[in-house]
Design goal:
The structure holds two protein chains of two kinds. A five-stranded mixed beta sheet of chain A has the order 2-1-5-3-4, with helices on one face. Helix content of chain A is 35%, strand content 13%. Chain A contains five helices and five strands; from the N terminus they run E-E-H-E-E-E-H-H-H-H. Chain B folds into three domains: 218 residues, Aldehyde oxidase/xanthine dehydrogenase, molybdopterin binding domain (Aldehyde Oxidoreductase, domain 4, 2-Layer Sandwich); 150 residues, Aldehyde Oxidoreductase, domain 4 (2-Layer Sandwich), CATH 3.30.365.10; 328 residues, Aldehyde oxidase/xanthine dehydrogenase, molybdopterin binding domain (Aldehyde Oxidoreductase, domain 4, 2-Layer Sandwich). Chain B is built from 22 helices and 27 strands. The N terminus of chain B is likely disordered. Classes of the chains: A alpha+beta, B alpha+beta. At the A-B interface, helix 1, helix 2, helix 3, helix 4 and helix 5 of A face helix 21 of B.
């Protein structure tokens, strides 16, 4: 048995410890917002937080989650109230939307660590997340917008 | 004019008229709504539909209004990022005078009444959803509005002509108001109108505005359901070992190890390869990798793309099938003051949607349900039915969100659907087939590699006098059921030459010839299809002619486009917004390109720098003229996205084969532009009332030539092969 918490809920699973966390999240826990894109930490679609750190869950064995706290896109906020989700809405960022869970999860760590990120900070934090539709310019604008929201207060 | 250039199948026009002609369309009955509500698995939709049945008003196949005031627009095109779940509802809601905050969408089931009005089957492609749906969705909204007005007029006992509508309600005089939800049940009992009056565009409240997308919220919290997310009770997951070489056949397989691995339920040979069916994806994948399959490698075992391109080069030295012949290009070349020749080459490309291919099938004795991100519903259903041994009506295909499509999910053979039905037959339970990224990339159906050999000449005053293009590449249409329609009366594939056959420049002598290459690599339409390579060759060569003539590349194009006002319009707009004449720092260069595709005109001005052989794109200024438009926010997004898609191909992407085996496997060897490589992009939209054109694809073609031409401006070196490598520049 492997035990950890997901979006604040404790889970104990009987699962092969070498299984990538991604597939445990998607299949055992039915949290399908976290996406499979490459299986080799190339595209970032599977990004989740383990104890607050952005991790590519497609290459992280589920054993790495033991005793830790996992946040997936479903746990970013209960009601689209996270400043990034609000900014994403205002900038109308997604196209196909498949990569956006991963984009948001990477951006969430960036924004926490650098509340006023520069373009260079965004390049560095977001370059591991591929968007085939080409929403990068809007993602960049949305991150800056979310930072402004946080700076003005009114958001956590 | 627009229709002529569309590269998707045009089939069976009479059937289309029968299916979606206005009379039938308006007659679609309320009773049909019950059938339409079954089986959707989109969050919230089923619950909402169940609640509203009984008092639901469904005046036609495209809209349903519930007593809860919700207006659900049934969309017959697939949402793959291009915004159809917003732009098409906008059209309907505009004529309905709906309260936009109450408007939602739902994917259409497969039914002839949802056929594409121009193509006679249910599908999404050719950048055609909005222009082909303009009339259809507006009519549907106007018809519903007329019936709601009639219902209100009846209740008030007034003449319908004295009623007006506003934001989801019918109004009369200064104090009477009934909301659409209130009127739904009564309106459902009324006959549809014979004629409807469409709005004067001057009164539009939604059309033409940058309305936010309806599908954004569920794409920000993980709720949007893509094909790969579908989950059914008792469902198993399969991963397939497919041939490592195109045309290879399975001789035998050893599953001794795989069979005993945890979670593995069945291992079966199917026409596509060997399927491992297991409880979970990871178990299936690990066991699939443990299979030992012996293949009869077949005729492609020595296939090598470098040899293939050498063959293309030789072939281009001989005349091909005539596509266009104005004047005497060869004669004019002979007498030209200066001439130049160039050979442009582009590789095979993968669509590389972020969501790898997948398909879920629940096959029963007398029915079959399929869930997948399809761009080709009619064909996928028919092909699934054949394998299931059922009539198509017994197969329902549920269109999920598509995690990118770019043409790959419009496969003439329904490859990813057909094999899933085969697996379901063997599984005996609902099953989802998932392709790994590597499976997806190696699975074929690529943008074909192409070669353009071009010769041109200018006279003593620098006027272009001759142009001769010869193309060599595989046909996308040949061998498919679209060949007869698309290639009718032609000895070449129009999808191979689109964008060269209509060369817009006023050059008196133009010859275009095509060689069709026969290669056993499956090829398919990829975002912008033929234009993805023709614009590169044509716009780079025009640039080369300008340099030969000693003229500015922008002014050289202007002079040759005097009779092409819309080309000229976007060209001037892009040049002006980019500041064409403003000097750039040393080491940087500015390039320009203009192209017509899918009914729309596009121009790019792009700024690059080249440092130690490394190309960096800094700025792309895009101008787009797609005629009368619906949502400028979506148009800007598609134009930006198209530019990035085109730039990714230009800078990074190439599929190569050695000994029949694909050399690229994943994003590390077939890169996509990333955040830190993405330039600043500006989009400028021409506002006019011309006929609507497409928007999903027209943003792509100019990216590569504008970058290549900017590299010339920066370095004096020409790029003639994609992806761009400065070591190959001449």
């Amino acid at each position: 048995m492997i035990g950890f918490s997901v979006n604040g809920k404790r889970v104990d699973l009987d699962v092969d410890p070498s299984t990538p966390l991604l597939w445990v999240i998607r299949e055992q826990l039915s949290l399908t917002g976290t996406k499979y894109g490459c299986g080799m930490a190339q595209c970032g679609a599977c990004t989740v937080h383990i104890n607050g750190e952005a991790v590519r869950s497609c290459v992280a064995p589920v054993s790495r989650a033991e005793g830790k706290s996992i946040t997936t896109i479903e746990g970013l906020s209960p009601d689209l109230s996270h400043p990034l989700q609000r900014a994403w809405l205002e900038e109308d960022v997604p196209q196909c939307g498949y990569c956006q869970s991963g984009q948001l999860m990477s951006a969430a760590v960036l924004l926490r660590e650098k509340p006023a990120p520069t373009d260079e900070d965004i390049d560095e934090a977001m370059t591991g997340n591929i968007c085939r539709c080409g929403t990068y310019p809007r993602i960049r604008r949305a991150i800056h917008r979310a930072a402004e929201m946080v700076a003005k207060g009114g958001a956590r | 004019m627009i229709r002529r250039t569309v590269t998707r199948p045009t089939m069976n026009t009479s059937q289309i008229i029968a299916d979606t002609g206005r009379r039938n369309f308006l007659k679609a009955s309320v009773a049909a709504s019950g059938g339409l509500l079954i089986g959707f698995r989109f969050p919230g939709v089923s619950a909402m539909a169940a609640e509203s049945s009984g008092s639901t008003f469904m005046p036609n196949a495209f809209v349903r209004i519930g007593s809860d005031e919700r207006v659900t627009v049934i969309v017959n095109h697939s949402e793959m990022g291009q915004g159809v779940y917003t732009s098409l509802p906008m059209l309907l809601a505009e004529e309905l005078d709906a309260d936009w905050t109450k408007v939602g969408f739902e994917p259409a089931p497969v039914d002839p009444k949802y056929n594409h009005p121009a193509f006679g089957m249910q599908m999404t492609g050719g950048s055609s959803s909005v222009w082909s749906g303009l009339e259809q969705f507006r009519q549907a909204g106007a018809a519903a509005r007329a019936m709601l007005i009639a219902a209100a007029a009846q209740q008030w006992n007034v003449d319908a002509s004295t009623c007006r509508t506003e934001s989801g309600a019918v109004l009369n005089g200064s104090n009477r108001k009934l909301t659409y939800g209130h009127l739904a049940a009564a309106a459902a009992k009324l006959p549809p109108p014979e004629h409807v009056q469409l709005k004067d565009p001057k009164t539009f409240k939604l059309i033409g505005k940058p309305i936010k997308r309806l599908d954004t919220p569920e794409k920000l919290n993980g709720k949007a359901e893509f094909g790969i997310d579908v989950k059914l009770p008792g469902m198993l997951t399969a991963v397939i070992a497919r041939p490592p070489i195109f045309g290879a056949k399975m001789k035998s397989f050893d599953d001794a190890k795989a069979r005993s691995m945890p979670g593995v339920r069945k291992i079966v040979a199917i026409p596509a390869g060997v399927a491992v069916i297991a409880d979970t994806f990871w178990q299936a994948k690990v066991a699939r990798d443990a299979l030992r399959v012996e293949w009869d490698e077949g005729s492609m075992q020595n296939f090598d793309t470098s040899k293939m391109m050498q063959g293309f080069r030789e072939r281009a030295k001989t005349p091909g099938t005539s596509v266009r012949k104005d004047g005497d290009a060869d004669g004019a070349l002979e007498s030209a003051a200066k001439k130049i020749e160039a050979v442009y080459e582009v590789p095979y490309l993968s669509h590389l949607m972020m969501e790898p291919l997948n398909c879920t099938v629940d096959l029963r004795a007398d029915s079959c349900e399929v869930w997948t991100g399809s761009q080709f519903q009619t064909i996928d259903r028919a092909n699934a039915a054949k394998i299931a041994g059922l009539p198509p009506e017994k197969v329902q295909l549920h269109t999920t969100f598509l995690g990118g499509g770019f043409g790959r999910r419009a496969n003439p053979q329904s490859d990813f659907v057909v094999e899933a039905v085969h697996v379901a037959k063997a599984a005996g339970t609902p099953v989802k087939v998932i392709w790994t990224r590597e499976d997806d990339m190696a699975g074929g159906w690529y943008r074909p590699a192409f070669l353009h050999a071009i010769e041109g000449g200018v006279d003593a005053s620098g006027n272009a006098v001759s142009w001769r293009s010869r193309l060599v590449g595989q046909s996308i249409m040949a061998g498919t059921l679209f060949a007869a329609m698309m290639m009718k009366g032609k000895e070449y594939d129009p999808a191979s030459v689109e964008g060269v056959d209509d060369l817009p420049y006023a050059i008196p002598n133009v010859t275009v010839e095509s060689h069709q290459a026969e290669v056993n690599v499956p090829v398919q339409w990829l975002r912008s299809v033929g234009h993805s390579h023709t614009a590169f060759a044509v716009e780079c060569f025009v640039d080369e002619l300008a340099a030969l003539a000693g003229k500015d590349p922008y002014q050289f194009r202007r002079a040759l486009l005097q009779k092409q006002p819309r080309h000229l319009g976007v060209l001037d707009l892009a040049a002006q917004k980019a500041g064409w004449d403003k000097p750039l720092p040393k080491g940087m260069g500015r390039g320009i390109a203009v192209h017509f595709a899918f009914g729309s005109y596009s121009a790019h001005v792009t700024e690059v720098s080249v440092t130690d052989g490394q190309v960096r794109v800094h700025r792309m200024v895009c101008a787009i003229d797609c005629g009368e438009y619906v949502n400028p926010g979506i148009i800007a997004a598609q134009t930006e996205g198209g530019a990035i898609f085109g730039a990714s191909a230009a800078l990074f992407q190439e599929l190569t084969f050695e000994n029949g085996r694909l050399q690229q496997t994943n994003f590390n060897t077939f890169p996509v532009m990333r955040m830190d490589e993405c330039p600043k992009i500006e989009t400028h939209i021409v506002n006019n009332q011309e006929k609507s054109g497409g928007i999903g694809e027209p943003g792509v073609p100019c990216a590569a030539p504008a970058i290549a031409n900017a590299i010339f401006a920066a370095t004096g070196k020409r790029i003639r092969r994609l992806p761009i490598r400065m070591t190959e520049a001449v």
